[in-house]
Every structure is written in C-alpha cells, then in structure tokens.
Amino acid sequence: MRRNQKGFTLIELIVVIIILGILSVTAAPRFIGISEEADRVVFSATAAAFKSGVQQIHIAWLIRANGKEVQNFIKIDNLGKNNRARYLSVNSTGYPADITGFSLTTNSQLDCQEVWLAVLDTQGGITADDTNSDYDVKYKGSFSCTYRYNKLPRLIVHYDSTTGKVTTST
Q1: Are the C-beta atoms of 50 and 166 separated by less than 8 Å?
Q2: Which of 16, 23, 97, 168 is disulfide-compatible with 91, CB 3.0–4.6 A?
Q3: Nearest-angstrom CA–CA distance, 117 and 131
Q4: In whole angstroms, how far apart are CA 164 and each of 45, 65, 85, 120, 158?
Q5: Residue 55, class by beta-carbon neighbours within 10 Å (0-12 exposed, 13-18 middle, 19+ buried)?
C-alpha cells in the first residue's frame, strides 16, 4: 500500500534551511559590497558635478567679469525673501562665494551651504535654511569648505573658494 505524501519531512526541511543558510552567508557580503560601491559612485559623481559647476562659473566669470568680484553674478531662483530672485556672487578670483552677496567671500557655514546647493542645483528650491541630508557642510576657515558624505563619512569634498580647487578625500 502506498501513502500519499502531503508535505516535507523534518529532515528535508532541515536540509533546505541549511542550504539557504549557506547561500545567505556566502551571498550577503557581496550585496553589502555592492551597496557601498554604489554609494562611492554617487559620491564621486556628485563631487565631479560640483567641481565642474565651479569651473563653469569661473569660465563665465573670465568671459564676463573683467577680473573683478561680482555681486549677483548668476541668477539662482525666485524663491528668496519676499519671493524675490536670488543670485550667486563670485569673489575677486572668479569662484562661487555666497548668495547673500554682502561679503563676496565664502566666510561662513551658511555661505558654504549656499554655494554647494547653488552650484549643484541652480533651478530653484534653494533657501537659506535648507539642509542637505546627504552631506554635512562645514566652514573650515580661510574661505574653504568641506562637504562630508553622510552615508560614508570618510568621503569628503574640499572646496577652496580663493583658488577654486575642489578635491576629495576617501
């Protein structure tokens, strides 16, 4: 007489669980590495876009500014106070300095934040109290800023507004 099987035996279930465990132990590190590599690529692309943006602003300054600092050099948006247009100003060496335009130098945390947001996103939505959750922005003195990538904090973009030099630390 033959019995119909309607499920797995306990031994079969244990064997399947062991096989799945072995597969997950060997595959998980590969997926973790992929995630970190993807974050590195995002950081590299953002850093390259920032560097390119700084260079493009400098080229525009070379063409249009006659070697002088320029307040309200490039229009950023129309969302400033009282819905009035806001502009990115450049310093006397032709690099992005601030949005408020009072000092024409990058000399505060707010200036660093505004330069970052203005260079990377010139199509509106930038406000003085905006925060960028992907990056921690710091003013480091001597007209320079650092932008630390929060997902991998050892990845940092450095910006020197007097020379326009944009470098990364990994």
Answers
A1: yes
A2: 97
A3: 9
A4: 18, 16, 25, 15, 10
A5: middle
Taking the chain (170 residues) in consecutive chunks of 10 residues, what is each chunk's mean pLDDT? 68 87 77 80 92 93 86 73 77 89 82 87 43 79 92 94 93
What DSSP letter does each residue of 46-63 carry, written as one string? HHHHHHHHHHHHHHHHHH
Give the Cα separation of 77 and 86 in Å (integer). 5
Residue type, 68: K
pLDDT at position 117: 84
User: What is the separation of C-alpha 85 from the centre of its chain, rounded to a whole number of angstroms?
Assistant: 24
Tokens of 110: 């707010």
118 contacts 88 by C-beta, under 8 angstroms: yes
The pLDDT value given to residue 124 = 39
Tell me, what's the pLDDT at 43?
A: 92
Instruction: Quote the Cα angle for 116-117-118, to 5°.
Output: 95
